[in-house]
């Protein structure tokens, strides 16, 4: 087995980071693994103390073959930090396992990642390994493939990551049928994420990685039981509101990797569509109209009174 390097991206959440590291230390392959921690600099002065606390903590950890800490001198933001960090380790090692500072892993997470990276190393269509499974129910297979590479605890190879591109021009490559498949029949808000990035409301990386796989007909391997718990949906993360809809019990046993057909699981697609349909029900038409009217009125008022309706 080749022990893949781990990239851990941290910022300003010391308690989340501690839980992530402590769970990772309990992984059966932790002591054989090289860990690189990318610590972003504060974006605003108010975040400086929390960043300092995170950096103080990560300099105290052990339990890995080696630990390298990269402290950014300026704020990169999560998207740039992940893109540059993953690129660096892929260029150096040819593969990488990726975690953020709000993910608690099963003790068998690293084993699954390394086994899968070894097994599918030469399968060009397999571009992503996911350690997370949403609570979709109805999955009996030990592993399965999807075209959507959900990003909570994942891995890839340099051969796949070289196809990553963060460009809004990719939206021009979609026809109606492709867009339908890309959004899991309209249940997953992936197209909306592209729009929010294009208009500057978001600055994320994952949706462009999904596009990179999708346009190459790539696949992501998933475990039949989750190896990741996301503890960041508590309102503390970037672009993450508080919710428990993604909560799922960690697998208490190792996931066995064995050859399966390299094709998307129809059952998994259906189960994910059902999950997203319940988790994110469509907004009623009358609510959409009210919101649109409010936006139009707001723009009209701003045009007439650019300094505010009271002239202040």
Could you walk me through the main structural features you see in this protein, from its secondary elements to its overall organization?
The chain is an alpha/beta fold. The chain folds into 2 domains: 6-281, Spore Coat Polysaccharide Biosynthesis Protein SpsA, Chain A (Alpha-Beta Complex), CATH 3.90.550.10; 284-312. It has helices spanning 14-25, 48-58, 78-93, 109-119, 158-161, 176-182, 190-198, 206-215, 266-279, 285-304; strands at 6-10, 34-39, 66-71, 95-100, 103-105, 126-130, 143-146, 154-157, 219-223, 228-230. Helix 2 (48-58) links the parallel strand 2 (34-39) and strand 3 (66-71). The radius of gyration is 21 Å and the shape is globular. Residues 299-312 have low confidence and may be disordered.
Chain-wise SSE layout:
Elements: E1 6-10, H1 14-25, E2 34-39, H2 48-58, E3 66-71, H3 78-93, E4 95-100, E5 103-105, H4 109-119, E6 126-130, E7 143-146, E8 154-157, H5 158-161, H6 176-182, H7 190-198, H8 206-215, E9 219-223, E10 228-230, H9 266-279, H10 285-304
Parallel strand pairs: 1-2, 1-4, 2-3, 6-9
Antiparallel strand pairs: 4-8, 5-10, 6-8, 7-9
Helix pairs in contact: 1-2
